[in-house]
Write a structure and sequence with these properties.
Structural class: alpha/beta
Low-confidence stretches: none
Strand content: 15-25%
CATH topology of the largest domain: Ribosomal Protein L4, Chain: A
Strand order of the largest sheet: 2-1-3-6-4-5
Oligomer: single chain
Number of strands: 6
Helix content: 25-40%
Length: about 210
């Protein structure tokens, strides 16, 4: 098994921790990572762009002028796409951009993202990370000690103190193991895992 150093929030080495080779020693395939990130970004698209057709646009249904004798082109409605304020032809309508890759591919992509951060020496494991109050200044002080400027911090579960304290710090994101994903791992330069998070990740990605 691979081994990495274990730190406390004062950036002091307090031991070592073994990493599961199945999670952190995968051969990285850029194509799979690209496919998973593309899927995630597509699933996050709102797809709510909407234009009105000539049926939906507001306006009279009366013929604007008589058919012949005016010297103008024939017109049957002010709501025609040819007229200012008329409907839009073939314009966008609300749609769903989401799609899913096979579950095995999504799991493999997550393992590869974890392996990429470990191989780059951009993985840090902390023994614990607790805060007594919601305070951005205190959280920022810990980040300074750990020398983290752009990092994803993975915690075992919901922690209001950590999540709210970090919300105003640019480049830092706190995420639970349940919500850990390829896009957020690759978006942040450093990956920080709590020791308890490692056990949950092994359970989630064991197959």
């Amino acid at each position: 098994m691979a081994v990495t150093e274990l730190y406390n929030i004062d950036n002091e080495k307090v031991g070592e921790v073994e990493l599961n080779d199945h999670l952190f020693c995968q051969e990285v395939n850029q194509h799979i990572l690209h496919d998973v990130v593309r899927m995630q970004r597509a699933n996050r698209r709102s797809g709510n762009a909407c234009t009105k057709t000539r049926v939906e646009v507001q306006g009279t249904s009366a013929k604007p002028f008589k058919q012949k004798g005016t010297g103008r082109a024939r017109a049957g409605s002010r709501r025609s796409p040819l007229w200012r304020g008329g409907g839009v032809t073939f314009g966008p309508k609300p749609r769903d951009y989401s799609y899913l890759l096979p579950k095995k591919v999504r799991k493999l992509g997550l393992k590869m993202a974890l392996s990429a951060r470990f191989s780059e020496n951009n993985l840090m494991v902390l023994d614990t990370f607790k805060m007594d109050e919601i305070k951005t200044k205190s959280f920022a002080a810990v980040m300074d000690k750990l020398e983290l400027g752009n990092a994803l911090i993975v915690i075992p579960g919901h922690d209001e103190m950590l999540e709210k304290s970090s919300s105003n710090i640019y480049g830092i994101k706190v995420l639970s193991t349940e919500g850990l994903n390829v896009y957020d791992i690759l978006l942040h330069k450093k990956l920080v895992l709590l020791q308890s998070s490692l056990e949950q990740l092994e359970e989630r990605l064991q197959s």
